[in-house]
Amino acid sequence: MLFNYTAIDKTGHETAGSIEALNEDVAINSLQRQGLVIASISSAAEKTFLKRDLAFFDRVSNREIVILSRQIATLFESQVSALRVFKLLGAESENKLLRKALSTVVDDLQAGNTISTSLEKHGKIFTPFYVNMVKAGEESGKLDETFSYLADYLDRSYEVSSKAKNALIYPAFVVFTFITVMVLMLTLVIPRISSIFLDSGQELPIYTKIVVGLSDFFVNYGVFIAIFIIIGAFFIWRFSKTENGRYSISEIKLATPFLGDLYRKLYLARISDNLSTMLSSGITTVRAIEITAVIVGDAVYEKLLREAAEDIKAGSPMSESFSKYPEIPNMVVQMMKVGEETGKLGSILTTLAKFYNREVKSAVDTLVTLIEPVMIVALALGVGVLLAAVLMPIYNISSSI
User: Fold this and answer.
1) Which of 159, 240, 267, 337 is most buried, by the most CB atoms less than 10 A from its CB?
2) Cα 3 to Cα 25: distance, rounded to the nearest angstrom
């Protein structure tokens, strides 16, 4: 077993190192025989495990990549060398994971690797889209413009995605809270009140009988329901990790009323924005579509894009390849066809990206506007039925006394 230690040598100087030993006592005895006074000693395996465990929580946010890209673009515009750029930004970064990655990039650059090759080794931080954009910038000699494009693209992507996610957080929280409160009422409050109703001997209204029946069901079978939900959630999670599961869940998501339309617009905006940015940077059409398939974030559109890329390799135009799929609106296909005929496919895709970004924002606003009144009505009905089921029998009992 390997142990790391800090000790004081015979001259009074502090020294540090590592030693191989069967256990900690053997390691200490061995160091003391060398005339060292042990200050601290720990297992290297435990330290490595702790670092790995803590590293699980480390991540680099999209916002940090946007800022990094803008800083790189500014430094390149100022004619600062690539090696110096990554040294400066690595030293200034507050994120440990990003700082470590940039430090490794500096080492790779010193060894003679290109920037894109160095970034590619850090796939959890820099996506295939990012790496290929940098590679295109290296080939064209316009790295400063490339990093500016990347920052603008990531900014737009983050804004649209976060708006869609944030719009769903509030309704999900309200629904979760409502369900939790109702379950607590049915399992803790209603059973105590229902005994009063039964002892009174009065005929209960139908809605009170339903509430009391639900309460009895949750009290008697609540544990089994919870176990069933947990097991079901586990198997759904396992299924979602398989290729067929991802595809099936994507189909269900896209077929959901209102939400499906929002997701379609979000993915179309992402596809258009990715393709326009990469084609404008000189990346080939096939490669641009293949990279977009990796980062689109939906199994249905990923499969669609991969199949379209194969068709284009076989000689089909992009518009014809995309026209086979109902997930791609006819308007998008016609716009692509115009772009191919005029030689301005990149600018046409940029227009489509802007259009669908606006559509996503509008769809989110509309969805929020619709969800709020529906939730208010649903909550009012739920609370109203529960109160009526409890208060009406109590009123009848008090009136008969």
Assistant:
1) 267
2) 11
Angle (CA) 384-386-387 rounded to 5° is: 65
pTM of the prediction? 0.66
Contact call for residues 340 and 316 (beta carbons, < 8 A):
no
Longest dimension (CA), the chain: 98
**256 phi and psi, to 5 degrees?**
-70, 130
Provide the token pair at 232: 């079901």
- The encoded tokens of residue 202 equal 């009065």
Task: Identify the CA nearest to 73 among candidates 64, 63, 82, 83.
Answer: 82
Residue 10's pLDDT is 64
Give the lowest-confidence range in 83-87, 352-356, 360-364, 394-398. Answer: 394-398
For the cut 80, the answer to whether the pLDDT of residue 28 exceeds it is no
Measured in degrees and rounded to the nearest 5, phi and psi for residue 43 equal -70, 130
Pick the range with the lowest mean pLDDT from 117-131, 143-157, 258-272: 143-157
**Residue partners of 139: CB distance under 8 A and separation at least 6:** 282
**CA pair distance 259, 366, nearest whole angstrom:** 11
- For residue 81, give the amino acid letter: S
**Cβ-contact 155, 66 below 8 angstroms:** yes
Query: φ and ψ at 124, to 5 degrees?
Result: -75, -20
β pairing state of 14-20 and 37-43: unpaired
Residue with tokens 């400063």: 144
Say whether 19 sits in a helix, a strand or coil: strand
β pairing state of 37-43 and 2-8: antiparallel
Q: In what side-by-side order are the strands of the sheet with 2-8?
A: 14-20, 2-8, 37-43
Here the tokens at position 385 are 């039925």
Distances (CA, A) of 104 to 54, 117, 120: 20, 12, 11
As a three-state string, the secondary structure of 181-211 is HHHHHHHHHHHHHHHHHHHHCCCCCHHHHHH
- 189-198, Cβ contacts within 8 angstroms, sequence gap of 24 or more: 190/215, 190/390, 191/215, 191/216, 191/219, 193/390, 193/394, 196/394, 196/397, 197/393, 197/397
Chain centre distance of CA 280? 27
**pLDDT band, very low/low/confident/very high, at 235 (cuts 50, 70, 90):** very high
